[in-house]
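Bumping with the actual sequence this time:
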Amino acid sequence: MFEWHGWATIRTTPEVVDFEDSATGDTVQAVARLVEGAQGIVNETVDLRWANGDLHLWVAGAHNHEGPRQLELYQAVAQAAPGSYGVLYTFDHDDEHWKRYVMRRGDVRLEVDESLSPHVPMVEDEDTDD
């Protein structure tokens, strides 16, 4: 099983701008197209919505095997809206380690996650059934 959970706040630029200019029309349209292209897969949630004047992206899901779509979406959003920031957590049950991808300043980087990894024993007990 492969699962993922992520969020991002969408911002046009990392520059300091007025609140109402944090996500411009062109940026909103570009990110909306990316999200629209990522929807329609079973066992996934991809949601883009406004909350308190900010545009937010939420993703979550579970598949039988890891695929590149989740990370590719985050990378595309970071390039389309380089002021955006957020995190994407992925977990491959075969690997037993959570990965944390951090979006900031137009880039998405893998960082070590020690909060949930290794999954056993941090999150789950060891399987003792033989």
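The tokens above came from a reply further down the thread. DSSP finds three helices and six strands in the chain.
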